[in-house]
Every structure is written in C-alpha cells, then in structure tokens.
Write a structure and sequence with these properties.
It comes from Streptacidiphilus jiangxiensis. One of its GO terms (molecular function) is manganese ion binding. The structure is a single chain. The protein has helices spanning 18-22, 32-39, 56-69, 97-103, 137-140, 145-148, 154-161, 171-181, 194-200, 206-219, 225-247, 249-254, 257-271, 333-351, 359-376, 384-390, 394-397, 479-490, and strands at 74-78, 84-86, 89-90, 111-117, 120-127, 165-167, 186-188, 274-275, 280-283, 304-309, 311-312, 321-326, 430-433, 436-439, 453-456, 459-464, 467-470. By secondary structure, the chain is α+β, with helices and mostly antiparallel strands. It has two domains: 47-220, Creatinase/prolidase N-terminal domain (Creatine Amidinohydrolase, Chain A, domain 1); 225-490, Creatinase/methionine aminopeptidase superfamily (Creatine Amidinohydrolase, Alpha-Beta Complex), CATH 3.90.230. The strands form six sheets. Strands 6-5-4-1-7 form a five-stranded mixed β-sheet, sandwiched between helices. A three-stranded antiparallel β-sheet has the order 9-10-12, covered by helices on one side. Strand 2 and strand 3 (89-90) form a beta hairpin. Helix 8 runs parallel beside helix 9 (194-200), helix 11 packs antiparallel against helix 13 and helix 14 (333-351) packs antiparallel against helix 15 (359-376). The longest helix has 23 residues, at 225-247. It is globular and about 80 Å long. Mean pLDDT is 95; it is low at 1-17. The structure holds glycine and manganese (II) ion. Residues 320, 403, 432, 434, 458 line the site of manganese (II) ion.
Length: 491
C-alpha cells in the first residue's frame, strides 16, 4: 500500500505533499462533496487527564545542568529526521540520544530549544501538532495521522514532557529570526537535522557546537536511578532473548545464523523498542570477526556460537551482552580451556570495577590474565611483563575490554579522554566488561586446533557505592552453568 491510493488533484496549497501523489493520477479530482465528507464527523479524542511521564522530572534535572553550563547562550537540540529508504518509504526512526536524554521524548523532526532568559533559560519544544481536519492534511499529507497514526496534541505533549510546545513547521524560520533579533552565542547539536543547522548556520560555529556535544556526552557518564532501572530492564529482556535463542538452536542448525538474529530480534521488538545495535550472531570461525553482523553462516554442532546482542528498551536504553555457547550443548576440552581463560579475565576485570578505581584498571586486569594464559599455553614467550609492555597478547585479544553503556551502546563516545578513558569510576557509571580471545582461521602462529575459535564474555556492570553490580548476572556465565542452563532449556 502506498500513499498514491488516495492521490488527490486539487489540494496542493493545503497539503504540499499531495503534489507528489497526484503525479500518479490514480484518482480523479477530489470533489467538493468528498472534501466536505472528509472534514466532518470526527470525535474529539483529546486526552485531558494525562499526567507527566515518569522520566520528565529526570530530564528536567539534566536540562538544569545544561543550562548552568552555558549561561546566556541559545542551545538547540534536534531529535533528527526520517531517512528515506526509497521513494516514500523510510528507515525506522530512532531519535537522537542527546534529545531523548534531555526530554524523554522520541518524536521525529522535534527540536528542544533552551532560550537564554535572565540567569537561566526558557526551555521549550518544537513538535508536529495533530493533523488538521479542516484543510485535509490528515488524509492527504504523507505525515497525516491517517497514514502514520495518531500523535499527541501539543497540549498533551506539554503535560507528558513538562515543556511548552510549538509547531515544528515554524522552527527553522523562528529560530533564525530570533538569532537575528536577539543575538546570543548559539549552539546546535549537529548531525541530526540539516534544516535546523542551515537556519542557524550564520550564528553557530563548528567548535562551539562540538563543545555542546561533548558536554552532553559527559552529562550521560553517571546514570540516575531511573536510567539504572531502564538498563536493568534492558538486561532482563536480553536474558530472555538469549534464552529464546538457546531454545531455537536446532532451528538455527537447520537454517543459518539468521535464525538466531531473527529470534533475538523478535524478543527485542516485543519486549523493547529494537536491538540496541546489530546483533552479532557468529557461529564457528565467524566468532573471530569482532563485528560479524552479516549473520549468514552455517551453525554447526561441535562449534561455538558467539552471540553479542542487546535489547533496547522502549525508552531507548540498551543492554550489551555476549555469551559464547557450545552449539551442541557441551564444550570440548580446548573450547573449555579457552573459555575458562576468558572467564577468569572477565572475573578479574569485574573485580576492578569499583568507585575510586581508574577506568583503565579493569582492562589492565583482564589483559594481565589473558597474557598469562597465552604464555602458559606456549603461544607467547614470557615473561608476562614483557608481553604486556609490548602488547603482544593483542594479536588475540584484539579490542579494549569495555565501554560505557546507556542510551547508546557505546555511550558517551564524545566525552573527553580525561572524563572517560582517564577517569576515576563513580557510582552510577555503567560499563561493559568484555574480554575475548580470537584465533583466526588462517592464523599460522597457533596450533591448528585453536584456529577458528573465538570466545567473548560480556556483562553490563553498574558501579555502586561499595563496588559493583552485574546487571546481566541472570545469564549463566561459567562453563558448567552454561552447559546445565542449555541442557535445562533443551531437555
Ligand atoms: N557489542 C558490540 C561492541 O561492544 O562493540
Ligand atoms: Mn560491548
């Protein structure tokens, strides 16, 4: 079904998008009678007893911190636009992280504005109002509610989000005009809304905008209690998704890695919004490709499945969890030996996550264990100190041991080195601990039996006041636990 089915002939002033539709000319001109019929007979569905959304109070605190950091400046945070896939179909929309964090809203094209006012700011939103029934846009425009579904009225959105709302169709012109008439340093979060950026271009600088983005990235480093609950929910749904996959391994063996991707995706869509990143469903030697997202390979009993996947909640917080599972339910001796090394490295890493520790500590703790094992197995010549100093273990450990987690899977990515990689951990930070060992299928420096084995174990760790809490602990992790869990699901 496409919009052309209702292609009109005579309404382009009222609904510009109709111009595109009329080219097809599938329908004759819209009669006055039809216009009249379409206008009338609709119930008033305004929702008048809404209460503020749970996250609105938390978003207000974040906006207060933003306001305090940039006094006297105009701050513009767009949600982003739909991206065309082809013709009049679009990719599914995922609102910009900065906008979601500061508003709790996820509406396409929306814009948050902090306008300097006295010692602080007036914050307000630009949103698309409900579709007009008088001029026919509700059924003639591609953005009409008859096509895309009912949206909140501006009054409803104001109650839910705790912010005044204006018509987004005026946003670019109004912002440009205000920037002219009330000069102030103006910053926009770039990369999401070319129209808003263009309207403000004479008043913004690349450097100034980048500073805003860095600040907003750092604002997300410490999660509040509401965000922690979201991340826990993301991990709980992810546990269910992994369980679904284990239950369906026989189907995956009969088909391909795609069955695993689809199985996890179904859970993500039913229990959340989406997957938080492309699921890595890597069977056999594909496990040695760090971001294997093609997921088109065979799933063979006797090999390992590395599944790295996370459910994103309806509020857009994501888990990021990896388990490496024996496809036939039991590790062989070498698989178990490598798995145990990665497990021990992860345990050492998790133990190093606590308030006051350096962010770098958990990586170093994990690398230490992996380097020791690689020397013990004769794959590297000791001493271990020399291996670590030269980084020789990295041929098989390949990546950093973790990252911040939140609305983005690699959250806070624009934070400065001193605030992130060189930081000291604080309660409320959430990060992954995910060491791995990867022996490529064509690696001639290891015995043949190792080739094609990849193992990663990844959990989502909250820094607490006195240590840490593993938010993804519900998923079995030791080799023995993994085997009995798989057996219990497939018995
Ligand atoms: N889960 C994918 C990554 O952390 O890169
Ligand atoms: Mn990760």
């Amino acid at each position: 079904m496409t919009e052309e089915n209702l292609a009109p002939e005579e309404t382009e002033e009222a609904a510009p998008q109709a111009i595109k539709q009329r080219k097809n000319g599938l329908y004759p001109a819209i009669s006055d009678e039809l216009t009249a019929v379409m206008k009338a007979g609709w119930a008033d569905t305004e929702l008048r007893d809404l209460v503020p959304a749970e996250q609105s109070a938390y978003a207000a605190k974040r906006r207060a911190a933003l306001s305090a950091r940039f006094p006297g400046e105009r701050l513009v945070v767009p949600a982003g636009n739909l991206k065309t896939r082809s013709n009049d179909t679009e990719y599914s929309f995922r609102a910009a992280t900065e906008y979601v964090h500061l508003t709790g809203d996820q509406t396409e094209d929306a814009v948050l504005v902090l306008e300097p006012q006295g010692d602080g700011h007036d914050a307000y939103l630009y949103l698309l109002p409900r579709s007009n029934r008088e001029n026919g846009e509700f059924w003639l425009s591609g953005q009409g509610e008859l096509w895309v579904g009912r949206r909140h009225s501006l009054a409803e959105a104001e109650t839910l989000l705790g912010l005044p709302a204006r018509d987004v169709r005026e946003a670019a012109a109004e912002l440009a005009e205000r920037a002219e008439e009330h000069p102030a340093v103006t910053r926009v979060v770039r990369g999401y809304d070319a129209g808003i950026e263009a309207a403000l271009a004479p008043h913004t600088t690349k450097h100034g905008d980048a500073e805003l983005k860095v600040f907003l990235s750092e604002l997300r480093l410490v999660k509040d209690e509401w965000e922690i609950a979201q991340l826990q929910a993301a991990c709980d749904a992810t546990t269910k998704g992994f369980t679904d996959v284990v239950r369906e391994l026989a189907q995956a063996v009969a088909t391909s890695e795609r069955w695993i991707e689809g199985t996890f995706f179904r859970r993500a869509r039913v229990d959340g919004n989406d997957v938080g990143y492309g699921s890595i469903c890597a069977a056999g030697p594909h496990a040695t490709t760090l971001h294997w997202v093609r997921n088109d390979g065979q799933v063979r009993p006797g090999e390992l499945l590395l599944l790295d996947a996370g459910v994103e909640t309806t509020t857009l917080y994501t888990a990021d969890v990896t388990r490496t599972l024996p496809i036939n339910g039991e590790f062989d001796e070498l698989q178990r030996k490598i798995y145990q090394a990665v497990y021990d490295a992860q345990e050492a890493g998790i133990a190093a996550v606590k308030p006051g520790a350096r962010y770098r500590d958990f990586h170093e703790a994990s690398q230490q264990v992996l380097a020791e094992r690689l020397v013990e197995w004769g794959l590297l010549e000791g001493p271990v100190e020399r291996v670590l100093e030269l980084g020789l273990q990295r041929r098989w450990t390949l990546h950093g041991t973790g990252h911040m987690l939140g609305l983005d899977v690699h959250d806070c990515a624009q934070a400065r080195v001193e605030s992130y990689v060189d930081c000291v951990l604080e309660p409320g930070m959430v990060l992954t601990v995910e060491p791995g060992l990867y022996f490529q299928a064509d690696d001639l420096t290891v015995p043949e039996a190792y080739r094609g084995i990849g193992v990663r174990i990844e959990d989502d760790i909250l820094v607490t006041a006195d240590g840490n809490r593993n938010l993804s602990a519900a998923l079995p992790r030791t080799a023995d636990e993994v085997e009995s869990w798989m057996a219990s699901l497939n018995s």
